[in-house]
Design goal:
Strand content: under 5%
Mean pLDDT: 85
Length: 176
């Protein structure tokens, strides 16, 4: 019984996060940032890794300063390192932790590029490309692959940034 209550509470938090993300997508960046920060305070630094990964992933989107965006994306990556496939599948049966990494590394690559740290950007871009095999053959996978290709172009890189580039294998949501 307690396990079912925990799962219901976890789903409720993901629903709340999703509602705030819709607010952000509706154009209210500042309000979304404040609400996401409230949820972050609620779950805490040691909360459920899926909640932390998801919140940090979306909080990065609401930042105006690229350094702050980078800090949140690093938190998302760190939380992903604590996730298990079982926890991710409990949220959505078709998800696997490794499928999160292309997006997480792509976001970090973009953050570093904004900050003029091209070597770090290329390193995360290699990791994103190396993890692309874990993406589905669907709209989300196409979006991430396209964004990786665009960032490669912006950085003057060819599309062969290292299928064997290593890195961690592959965040929820629509944000690359």
């Amino acid at each position: 019984m307690t396990e079912r209550q925990d799962e219901a509470a976890a789903d409720a938090m993901m629903t709340r996060i999703g509602q705030v993300v819709m607010l952000h997508h509706g154009g209210d960046r500042e309000e979304a940032r404040e609400r996401l920060l409230g949820l972050w305070a609620e779950i805490g630094e040691d909360g459920d890794p899926l909640h932390r990964c998801t919140l940090a992933h979306y909080l990065a989107d609401t930042q105006e300063d690229p350094s702050d965006e980078l800090a949140w994306d690093l938190r998302a990556l760190s939380a992903a390192g604590e996730l298990t496939d079982g926890r991710v599948a409990a949220h959505h049966e078709s998800l696997a932790v490794r499928a999160l990494y292309p997006s997480l590394h792509l976001n970090l690559a973009a953050d570093y590029a904004k900050l003029g740290r091209d070597d770090a950007a290329r390193s995360h871009l290699r990791r994103a490309r190396g993890a692309m095999g874990d993406l589905g053959d669907d709209g989300y996978g196409d979006m991430i692959r396209g964004a990786i290709g665009r960032l490669e172009g912006e950085l003057g890189e060819s599309g062969d940034l290292g299928e064997g580039g290593g890195g961690t294998p592959g965040v929820p949501g629509q944000r690359p």
